[in-house]
Design a protein that fits this description.
Rossmann fold; three-stranded antiparallel sheet; two-stranded parallel ribbon; elongated
């Protein structure tokens, strides 16, 4: 965490209190402009699509860069005050997400997204607390429970 704060403070001195965003040419080289097939798109993405070429949507990198700058400004603000949940469930991103999150002491999801994590947070919280209690009970030897109750756990 201190390493991240040092990096943030270094970059804030040089970049008006924000992280450095990639240049347009870097986004282009990374292939950030390739979108979904035209047949598998969400109409809400229309404002971010530059054009359609060979049945594939090309994403507008100028808008992408602007939104990256906004996002990084928010991340910079919140990384100084608390934790950030890092989510990357695609196979290519899983190991990177885990490494970055563990290095900076932040929470992460790098496998399947647990449905209802935000929309049903209270229910998820109770389930996790119940699981923790069960694990503690089993670790102590499950005294006072019948064999069938232990097996059901």
């Amino acid at each position: 965490m201190t390493e991240l704060k040092e990096k943030v403070s270094e970059k804030t001195e040089t970049k008006n209190k924000s992280f450095q965003t990639p240049e347009l040419i870097d986004l282009l080289k990374a292939g950030a402009h390739f979108g979904h097939k035209k047949s598998a798109w969400n109409p809400r993405m229309k404002k971010y699509i530059y054009e359609e070429r060979n049945g594939i949507h090309i994403i507008d990198l100028v808008k992408t860069k602007e939104l990256l700058e906004e996002t990084l400004a928010v991340l910079s603000k919140y990384s100084e005050t608390g934790n950030i949940l890092i989510v990357g469930t695609k196979g290519q991103a899983a190991s990177i997400v885990q490494a970055v999150a563990e290095k900076n002491g932040m929470f992460y999801v790098n496998r399947r997204w647990p449905g209802g994590l935000f929309t049903n947070f209270e229910g998820m919280k109770k389930s996790v607390q119940g699981l923790v209690k069960m694990e503690e009970l089993l670790a102590k030897g499950a005294r006072g429970l019948v064999k069938k109750e232990v097996l059901l756990m």
